[in-house]
Amino acid sequence: MFSKISEQAHRLVSLTSKIHKKSKTKVVAITSGKGGVGKSTITANISYLIAQKGYRVAVLDADIGLANMQVLFNLKPSATFFDYIEGKVQLQDILLQTQYDNITLCAGRSGYEYTKDTNTLVVSRIVNEIVELNRYDILLIDTGAGLNEYVQEFLDIADEILAITTTDPSAITDVYALIKMLSKTKKKLLICFNHTKKFAIGEAITNSIKELALKNKLNKNFMVKYIGSISSTQNIQTTSRLRKLFSKEFRYDDTTLDIEKIANKLLKELN
Predict the structure, then answer these.
(1) CATH number at residue 174
(2) For the chain, what is the domain count?
């Protein structure tokens, strides 16, 4: 899981850097070590709040086999990201305009399985092609949970990485594993805590993680930056079942305001 990136992957990262310099599109990977922390729901709502500020946003559902972003955006795509991987459709066929202004979705497919000879570099090629369009201000990648080779590939080529976690001990352990991996090749990781009542709780845990990293002599120049916490509300589950975005339906709810603060800090990091 934590093996070194191959020379081929390094070349991809180098190529991506050159492409990014020519495009206005910033790439943000939103990830989590542990599943079930609310990553996809937060990604969808961040995209809405950013789009409301006038930014053009593309959302790539890269959760291998467990895609649900089309449900959150209430779309029934005829073609998905994985149809593109298999060469069945063109890029334009999978860039779907949502019902929300300034948000385009590139949907995934639930239950997708890779063939044994699938080259993982094919997976992230779509990121470069979307960036090359120079059509969007921000590309949000909703990665799968865990740290498998497909997730790592998206993390490698992202301009910023935001980890979603909770105060659950296993979730924190997985975030620390993510830090160990990223500290070898990246400069920074942004963290936010979901289902956490107070900002200070996430801040204290983040500081403890930083201290552990220093104690274990991880890269001291690697920055772990805490950008906020999100309180819980039953209304999020309700709106998700109704295929609506919580941040639109409950615009001034405390939870929406929590997500908006995180979105604003993310924008500040990108600028």
Answers:
(1) 3.40.50.300
(2) 1
Write out the H or E segment, with its range, that includes residue 202: helix 199-215
The answer to whether the CB of 202 falls within 8 A of the CB of 196 is yes
C-alpha span between 176 and 262 (Å, rounded) = 20
Classify residue 210 by its DSSP letter: H
Q: How many CB atoms lie within 10 A of CB 95?
A: 19
What backbone phi and psi angles, to 5 degrees, belong to 176? -65, -40
Find the angle CA(60)-CA(147)-CA(25) to the nearest 5 degrees.
30
Average pLDDT along the chain, 271 residues, taken 10 residues at a time: 45 54 92 87 97 97 81 91 88 95 89 52 83 97 86 93 96 95 95 95 97 94 97 84 92 95 97 88
Query: Measuring CA to CA, which residue among 225, 156, 206 is closest to residue 184?
Result: 156
Is residue 1 a part of any domain in this protein? no
96-97 vs 223-230, strand pairing mode: unpaired
Task: Say what the pTM is.
Answer: 0.89
C-alpha span between 108 and 60 (Å, rounded) = 8
Name 105's bridge partners: 59, 96
Residue 184 lies in a domain: yes
Can you give the residue range of the structural domain that contains 50?
Answer: 7-270
